[in-house]
Structure formats: C-alpha cells, structure tokens
Amino acid sequence: MSYLYVLLTVLLTVYGQIVIKWQVTQAGAYPAGTYERMHFLWTLLINPWVASSFAAAVVAALFWMVAMTKLQLSHAYPLVSLSFALVLLLSWALLDEPLTWQKVVGVVLIGCGVAISSQG
Q1: What is the pLDDT of residues 44-96, one digit of tens each?
Q2: Above 80 in pLDDT, residue 119?
Q3: Among 80, 56, 85, which Cα is nearest to 68's?
Q4: Is residue 91 within 8 Å of 14, Cβ to Cβ?
Q5: d(CA 53, CA 20)
Q6: How far apart are the first and last CA of the chain?
Q7: I need a labelling partner for 60 at 20 to 30 A (CA). Which of 5, 6, 49, 103 fits?
Q8: What pLDDT does 66 receive?
Q9: How many CB atoms within 10 Å of residue 96?
Q10: Domain-by-domain residue ranges, the chain?
Q11: Closest to 5 (Cα-Cα) out of 69, 54, 74
Q12: Is the dihedral of CA 40, 43, 45, 47 positive or negative?
C-alpha cells in the first residue's frame, strides 16, 4: 500500500505540472509591465485548472506523508523521479513539446539510477 501512496504522489505532481504548463501557454506571453504582470499572475491563480493543480499538490503532499510513515526516504524518493518520464511523455503527447533522443536517453539514465538505488 505504501507504494500506491508514492505512485499517487507522482501522478498528482505530474498532473499539476502538465496543467500549469497548459494554462500558462493558454494565457500567453509574460507581460513587461508590473501591473500587467500582477494581473497576469492573478488571472492564472484564480483559474480553476491552476487551482486544481495546487489542490493536487496538497493531496500529493498528504499521500507523501502517509508513504513516509512506512518507507525509508532514501528508498521512496528515487521513485519520485518517475515523474520525469511521465512529464516527458505527456508534454510530448498533450503539449506538442519535442521528444528528442537526448531527453529520452536522459530519462533512461534516470531510470537506471532509480533501479540501482532502489536495490540498496
């Protein structure tokens, strides 16, 4: 069950990252003026999608706290790096971001590191 909490932490974290990028892209370029910047950020903060990403972060933190009651941090934390692979794939599939061989190799290396560190 502890690994389920870690997985839910990862999924909610990835959700938040994808939603924020999607909504920031929809909002347009970051303005130059101070007032315009404050308005831009306020508009994002009250956006229901962005608010849902903050809620997801809070719930992810709660799941993480529960997972920490059962798992060693040094064992569980490397699993959070699965978010790198999920963000890479989802940003490519949903946000049309480029999927380069360098990014894929980087994620594979991270995966190898997770596999090695989880054995210790």
Answers
A1: 999 999 999 999 999 999 999 999 999 999 888 888 988 999 999 999 999 99
A2: no
A3: 80
A4: no
A5: 7
A6: 21
A7: 103
A8: 97
A9: 9
A10: 2-117
A11: 69
A12: negative
pLDDT at residue number 25:
96
110 within 8 A of 81, measured Cβ to Cβ: yes
> What string of DSSP letters covers the chain?
-HHHHHHHHHHHHHHHHHHHHHHHHHH-SPPSSHHHHHHHHHHHHT-HHHHHHHHHHHHHHHHHHHHHTTS-HHHHGGGGGHHHHHHHHHHHHHH-----HHHHHHHHHHHHHHHHHTT-
User: What proportion of the chain, given as a percentage, has pLDDT over 90?
Assistant: 80
List, in order, residues 6 or more apart from 4 with CB less than 8 Å away. none
User: Rounded to an integer, what distance in angstroms lies between the CA atom of residue 44 and that of residue 51?
Assistant: 8
Angle at 19 between CA 14 and CA 48, to 5 degrees: 130
Decide if 23 contacts 47 (C-beta within 8 A).
yes
The pair of three-digit structure tokens given for residue 48, joined into one six-digit string: 């229901």
Residue with tokens 């990252």: 17
